[in-house]
């Protein structure tokens, strides 16, 4: 099973790298927010797989916190952008 | 019992990873923010749900509810995030209107007298009211 | 306030308290007396302190149909994941999108939210803007190549709406006239 977990982890990591490209590239702030949001879901997925690989569950609360933070963070950032652009 | 679990995980985990990867590729390949929201909201959420399912099956039973909670949370927040980002993208003119076959929201706003002043949008031959005058000089 | 009305208003908050309590216990991951009591206390304080308006007047929740709605939602999510993955591979840069206006029949915050959420989970559609006053969704659809696609998308969203109303009822009925400033408001 460890081979499976490793492969899955590698795939998720590759996906994370691709998302990172979008995060760096932009071109707009909204693209970056979206990329960051997706990146956090990938971190959640990767951490979950990592728990299987390492056979311990200590990082379970981290997943919950990440899931909460990603949502509030993205929504707040999008609101800020809307406000900023609306003022021009 | 363990074999059943292993089979489920072996089926579900790679599928989830594949959806994650495809979501990331979509994020890279699609041309504008609104199109990128589609893989981000759907492929990504599905990928995460599958991976969480594959994880939950392998875990001791008392951890399963927490993973379920994360899954449910993700499922209900992903549409909200994408709606807010989509709305902001529209309002700040971040959408590429040349890629759009039809924009009924712009038509609506034009009829209300508050046309969008985003990037140039080709004259819409199907639009019931044509492009608003303000857009012509952009 | 008579005693009966008081009791009813307390009853109205019970589901919310129960849900918060459940959340608390799940997040602590144990069911020791301290956690149980503390959770009940926190949930009650939160519900009492931050009272929410009744979210759906006149709703008739039907558990079986809500279950079916959730099942549909999961099935839709799987389908849309597959569809969007295919689009990524097949179309990539050259997609053609559209923003479709969908008039809704439901008129309650919760129902419109539910329709919007499920619409985002159905293949190829994503809610970009909600016009609460006129009860319209503006749906970003992908891919849209011709008029037929537009109509298909619109019908799909209204199908979602039908499923939602079948599950929890339409809430308060909305008779025409209030939003009369929009002459094209009615559905074909």
TrEMBL record, chain A:
It is a multi-pass membrane protein. It holds the Pfam family MrpF_PhaF. It is found in: Cell membrane. The chain crosses the membrane at residues 6-24, 33-53, 59-81. Keywords: Cell membrane, Membrane, Transmembrane, Transmembrane helix, Transport. Its main location: membrane. It comes from the Bacteria. Belongs to the CPA3 antiporters (TC 2.A.63) subunit F family. PANTHER family: NA(+)/H(+) ANTIPORTER SUBUNIT F1, NA(+)_H(+) ANTIPORTER SUBUNIT F. This is Sodium:proton antiporter. It comes from Streptomyces synnematoformans.
């Amino acid at each position: 099973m460890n081979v499976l977990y490793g492969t899955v982890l590698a795939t998720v990591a590759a996906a994370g790298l691709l998302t990172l490209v979008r995060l760096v590239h932009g071109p707009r702030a909204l693209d970056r927010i979206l990329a960051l949001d997706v990146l956090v879901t990938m971190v959640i997925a990767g951490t979950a797989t990592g728990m299987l690989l390492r056979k311990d569950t200590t990082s379970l609360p981290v997943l919950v916190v990440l899931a909460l933070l990603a949502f509030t963070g993205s929504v707040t950032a999008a609101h800020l952008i809307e406000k900023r652009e609306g003022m021009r | 019992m363990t074999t059943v679990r292993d089979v489920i995980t072996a089926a579900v985990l790679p599928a989830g990873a594949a959806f994650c990867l495809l979501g990331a590729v979509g994020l890279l390949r699609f041309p504008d923010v609104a199109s990128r929201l589609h893989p981000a909201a759907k492929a990504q959420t599905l990928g995460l749900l599958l991976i969480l399912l594959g994880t939950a099956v392998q875990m001791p039973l008392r951890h399963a509810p927490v993973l379920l909670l994360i899954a449910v949370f993700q499922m209900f927040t992903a549409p909200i995030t994408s709606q807010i980002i989509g709305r902001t993208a529209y309002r700040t003119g971040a959408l590429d209107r040349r890629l759009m076959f039809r924009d009924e929201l712009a038509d609506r706003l034009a009829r209300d007298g508050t046309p969008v002043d985003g990037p140039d949008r080709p004259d819409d031959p199907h639009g019931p009211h044509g492009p608003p005058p303000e857009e012509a000089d952009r | 306030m008579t005693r009966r009305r008081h009791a009813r208003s307390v009853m109205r908050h019970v589901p919310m308290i129960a849900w918060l309590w459940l959340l608390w216990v799940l997040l602590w991951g144990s069911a020791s007396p301290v956690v149980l009591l503390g959770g009940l206390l926190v949930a009650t304080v939160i519900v009492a302190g931050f009272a929410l308006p009744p979210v759906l007047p006149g709703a008739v929740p039907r558990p079986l149909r809500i279950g079916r709605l959730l099942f549909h939602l999961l099935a839709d999510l799987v389908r849309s994941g597959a569809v969007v993955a295919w689009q990524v591979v097949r179309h990539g840069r050259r997609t053609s999108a559209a923003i479709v206006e969908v008039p809704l029949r439901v008129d309650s915050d919760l129902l419109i939210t539910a329709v919007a959420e499920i619409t985002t989970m159905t293949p190829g559609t994503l809610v970009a803007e909600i016009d609460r006053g006129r009860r319209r969704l503006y749906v970003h659809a992908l891919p849209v190549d011709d008029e037929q696609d537009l109509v298909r998308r619109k019908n799909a969203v209204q199908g979602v709406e039908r499923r939602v109303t079948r599950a929890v009822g339409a809430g308060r009925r909305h008779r025409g006239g209030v939003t009369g400033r929009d002459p094209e408001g009615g559905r074909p």
